[in-house]
């Protein structure tokens, strides 16, 4: 487990799951993303134009003017290639931890990002298996927050109900059942009217009894 991610976990929390994404699936999804067809078409067009310019009668003049421009024009291709190459670094920085109180995740390329989401804020837990997930026998556990989190988009304040996604893990079914049960039990416990609580559970502040 990521040692720095471990610093976010409270002393009174019990770690139930700790792991990383499946490496092959993580890399494949980073390479074969929606930008790939666009980058291929863009690159084929630009390289064809460069080849045609260099093979013309004025190839020397084209080399000094057209080729540098087209290399700059290939920026979407360079961005895609950089993202695909950086996927190895992102994989190294990605870790997940599930405790009896919250979900924690780390990620990032150059800088590390650590985030957490307590079960008291989660309203839904879903299971997703894309093409590569099914290919490699893994799955994604996707959570949704019940509270709108403030965010900034194009300079404007907005809100999002994003939770934390535990992506491309091998034991996805087991983790899904764990997260789903914790979310249902703890979220219901918080919302349950105090006067109607069963005698065995006097409130969320007591120790969780699953």
Describe the structure.
The protein is an alpha+beta fold and 210 residues long. The chain is 44% helix and 28% strand. The protein has seven helices and seven strands; from the N terminus they run αβααααββββαββα. The chain has helices at 3-6, 23-31, 35-54, 59-73, 75-92, 131-136, 172-191; strands spanning 15-19, 95-99, 102-107, 113-118, 122-128, 139-153, 156-169. The strands form two sheets. A four-stranded antiparallel sheet has the order 1-2-3-4. A hairpin with a 5-residue loop joins strand 3 and strand 4 (113-118). Helix 2 (23-31) runs antiparallel to helix 5 (75-92). The protein is elongated and about 85 Å long. The two termini are 25 Å apart. Residues 150-160 have low confidence and may be disordered.
Would you kindly provide a brief summary of this structure?
The chain has helices at 3-6, 23-31, 35-54, 59-73, 75-92, 131-136, 172-191, and strands at 15-19, 95-99, 102-107, 113-118, 122-128, 139-153, 156-169. The protein is of the alpha+beta class and 210 residues long. The strands form two sheets. Strands 1-2-3-4 form a four-stranded antiparallel sheet. The chain has a three-stranded antiparallel sheet with strand order 5-6-7.
Indicate the topology.
Elements: H1 3-6, E1 15-19, H2 23-31, H3 35-54, H4 59-73, H5 75-92, E2 95-99, E3 102-107, E4 113-118, E5 122-128, H6 131-136, E6 139-153, E7 156-169, H7 172-191
Antiparallel strand pairs: 1-2, 2-3, 3-4, 5-6, 6-7
Helix pairs in contact: 2-5, 3-4
């Amino acid at each position: 487990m990521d040692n720095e991610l471990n610093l976010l976990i409270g002393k009174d929390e019990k770690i139930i799951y700790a792991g990383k994404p499946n490496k092959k699936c993580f890399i494949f999804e980073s390479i074969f993303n929606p930008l790939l067809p666009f980058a291929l078409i863009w690159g084929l067009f630009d390289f064809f134009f460069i080849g045609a310019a260099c093979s013309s009668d004025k190839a020397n003049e084209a080399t000094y003017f057209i080729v540098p421009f087209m290399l700059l024009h290939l920026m979407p291709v360079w961005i895609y290639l950089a993202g695909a190459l950086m996927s190895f670094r992102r994989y190294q920085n990605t870790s997940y931890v599930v405790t009896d109180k919250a979900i924690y995740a780390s990620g990032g390329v150059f800088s590390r990002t650590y985030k957490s989401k307590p079960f008291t804020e989660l309203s839904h837990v879903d299971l997703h298996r894309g093409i590569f997930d099914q290919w490699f026998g893994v799955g994604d556990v996707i959570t949704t927050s019940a509270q709108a989190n403030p965010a900034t988009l194009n300079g404007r304040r907005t809100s999002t109900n994003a939770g934390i996604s535990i992506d491309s893990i091998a034991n996805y079914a087991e983790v899904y059942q764990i997260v789903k049960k914790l979310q249902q039990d703890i979220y219901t416990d918080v919302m349950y009217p105090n006067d109607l609580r069963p005698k065995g559970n006097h409130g969320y502040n007591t120790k969780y009894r699953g």
